[in-house]
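explain this.
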Amino acid sequence: MEQFNPLDNMSDSQSFTLSPQTIDYIESGSKWAKFLAILGFIGSGFIVLLMIGVMFATGLSSNSPFGDSAMFPMGIIVIFYGLIGGFNFLFALYLYRFADKLSGAVNNQSNELFEEGFMHYKRLFKMLGIMTIVLIGVNLLMIPMSFMLMDGFSPAGF
């Protein structure tokens, strides 16, 4: 296989080419990325099914065996599962698009597909980074809340 230059429009001092071994790594990696993305889509489907199951099992309808008091906390759990499923789907979608565009770029020797593939790669890691920051913030907020809850449950006299 001939060498592929993803930056043909750059000057000679700034351009680089991908060796056949690097192209082989990209092709192999994109296959694994597609596989993991498909597993992510399947996992998102299972999360949505779990969300629907929680809705029906807890009876978010008017004839709930737990009464009206169970509707509010279960509603939060359903929303939580929905958010997890949605984010999982987006992660899988960006990963799949990255893999698809990268394999297309190698097969067609297309700079545009190469660039689009890495655009989706950037989006994937940007979303993962934002999600990590949010989760760290939520965990930091849970620390004082847990102490407040423990104080509320302490026996009298201690």
In short: Helices lie at 20-58, 71-108, 111-152. DSSP finds three helices and no strands in the chain. Residues 20-121 form one domain.
